Amino acid sequence: MKLALASLLIGSAAAFTASSSAGYSTALKSTVTETYSFTKSEEIFAEAQTLMPGGVSSPVRAFKSVGGNPGAYAWDVDGNKYIDYVGTWGPAILGHADDDVLDAVKKTMDKGTSFGAPCALENELAKAVIDAVPSVEMVRFTNSGTEACMGMIRLCRAYTNREKVIKFEGCYHGHADAFLVQAGSGVATLGLPDSPGVPSSATKATLCAEYNNLDAVKAIFEDNKEEIAAVILEPVVGNSEFLEGIRELCTANGAVLVFDEVMTGFRVSYGGAQKYFGVTPDITTMGKVIGGGLPVGAYGGKKEIMEMVAPAGPMYQAGTLSGNPLAMTAGIETMKKLREEGVYEELERKSKMLVDGIVATAEKHGLPISGDYAGGMFGWYFVEGPVKNFQQATKANAETFGKWHRAMLERGVYLAPSMYEAGFMSMAHTDADIERTIAIADEVMATL
Ligand SMILES: Cc1ncc(COP(=O)(O)O)c(C=O)c1O
After folding, report:
1. Could you tell me the CA-to-CA distances from 15 to 9, 259, 306, 316, 410 in Å, in that order?
2. Is residue 1 in a domain?
């Protein structure tokens, strides 16, 4: 089964997988003015809300901020079809249901799904990760990006024998207590929990700084001499200058530099953002793409640090299903295809084509916009750019975004339902998909 369009969202929602595949063959509406109906999707989502908190298994899938509901994306049950730029929030870099990945997973599955014992497939994926990611000499697999980040922070603290960590406003590192700190405005704010249920004691040692503001980080180091275990950041919003500055500060202060590459790893380049920007951290967290659509996370780094992790060292971290053969296989097969000649050039070419087209269309309609891309990742904000940190991003027009999102959806374009989330390009997207997206955007922007 070779899918022609990246819009065939196999497996993206419970309502979707439970239904027949009849909807997959439904063509995109032939005119851009015709909009979709979501009757069955709404029924299914109404039921989901009685079964699961908010009707979803992960909060950002909910459509509270833009109106509508994720059931709308049960494109099969209503027969609607979308061009998908969410790509299961990043992992679907080859598009959904890639033949080679599925075939390999099926073969592995015939032998069993998990043994809780070391398997050769772990070594194979580990070698691929180590070969690709400059900072990684040794790796530990987990089941999610959140778990990887939990292990990583414990490791940083164990290695340095310090407790405080610096994170940045607007950076997400999974849902572990210590990371659920966004902090308000201000150059550097002592972390306060973002979510009820997070004890203040859990975030006391989390210090929050403004992104792309090196002075803010310097000031925190000054105020907390020899107390900072690590600086943790998502590297893609940065520029090389900022990343290099942070690298120097960490080295000078004996802190571990962590790039959280759960989103950017194998997405902006085969070696992640660290390869793209040429700045090497001490520890890297990964997830999404390395699992090829199955649950995998990982943290890795210098051998000297990683050998602190049990059973090699004293820092405990574990997982019943970590490194299971199915997930390892999906990752291995996905990465094999990503090593083919020209993959990342092609992803970036298409991301650029889309962002340039959307920005030009917005300008034509007099809408303020700021867009950017790196490899197979892109985004835009409805605000005069450039957008270089979270505070600037919050100035974007949320109301315009909500209308835009809904109108694009109703015409067959599935964008992330949050203005702060990136878009993801896959190898399955065609130029025709992108041209169509831009044509639909032109129609929608005329109404905003
Ligand atoms: C940068 C980053 N870190 C960590 C996570 C958490 O990963 P997961 O959702 O697999 O737990 C995410 C998820 O979006 C992420 O983008």
Report:
1. 12, 35, 41, 38, 18
2. no
User: Is residue 165 a contact partner of residue 231, using CB atoms and an 8 Å limit?
Assistant: yes
Rounded Cα–Cα distance for residues 78 and 73 (Å): 9
Computed over every residue of the chain, the mean pLDDT equals 85
Neighbours of 225 (CB within 10 A): 8
Q: pLDDT tens digits, residue range 21-62?
A: 333 334 444 456 577 777 877 777 777 777 776 766 555 555
CA 393 to ligand 1 centroid distance, Å? 19
* C-alpha 383 – ligand 1 centre gap (Å): 26
| Beta strands, E only, 324-442 | 370-374, 377-381, 413-414, 423-424
Q: What is the pTM of this model?
A: 0.86
Domain around 181: 99-338
**Residue 380 identity:** W
Tell which of 309, 338, 367 closes a domain. Answer: 338
Contact present, 414 and 73 (Cβ < 8 Å): yes
Q: What residues are labeled active site?
A: 172, 260, 288
